[in-house]
Design brief:
Strand content: over 45%
Number of helices: 0
Distance between the termini: 23 Å
Helix content: under 10%
Strand order of the largest sheet: 20-19-18-17-25-24-23-22-21
Oligomer: single chain
Order of helices and strands: EEEEEEEEEEEEEEEEEEEEEEEEE
Largest sheet: 9 strands, antiparallel
Shape: globular
Number of strands: 25
Amino acid sequence: LSISAQENGALTGKWGDYEVSDLKFENDKLSLTRTVRMFQQEMKLTYQAVLMDGKLVGQQTGERGSIPAIGSRIKPKPAALGTWQLKIKSPDQETEAGLTLAQKPDGSWTGAWESSMAKNEASNVNFKDGKLSLTLTSISEKKQSKSTLDAVIKDHELTGTLANPKGKMPVQGNRHGANAIGTWALTTESDRGPRTNNLIIYNDLTARYQIMDSYFDVQEINVSDNVLTFKIVTRFGPNEFETSFKGQIEGDTLKGETTTPWGANPTTGKKLTPTKDKK
């Protein structure tokens, strides 16, 4: 559910990709109506909730009764998250390394640096206003060494300096999977006609996929060169369904195939917007 205010103060909203109506928010109370379209049928549902401790606590009501529906605000993902492919220039050579940064639920950072020369754990990770700093610790049988990385991240590029007791070296890098990151509209052809679902890929290569008017977490996703693959498992009652996709990225378009328990169908995609990250 996304809600925004127009210049005149009126509220507009979407539940999934469908516009809601009768949207009101007063005294921490939210109410709206949404229309669910399933195959050739339409069903109207109402939602009433109270904003409590940063969460929406309420009920969704339709012809078959009411069910609890609780919402939590989705926090923007920091732009430093993900895997970075780096190049480090020293006076006599250029080396490559991979830096992977992740966040725990409590907001603390974890990181790992891997190159042909060493594997390092990242600590003291700090990221704010597009600036990244961290400490790398390399442990071998003979000794322990430390170095620091200070960098600036803009969009999908990283530029900075790696410093150790021997001196400073410039570092440049790009985010792995940058060509896939963003919101895609995927249109799959079938005997029932075309159906368009959105796929949102975040900078850490986690993703959410739209089925009907709901979004589900993608369990597996991989970007290799210009090939995107992902798999999602959904459950409806006692039944479990697997949907998988494999396609070729060509700029802002995708071309591939979606496979479900009912067979494989051609799918094309168009990138709608880049996914916004938190600086």
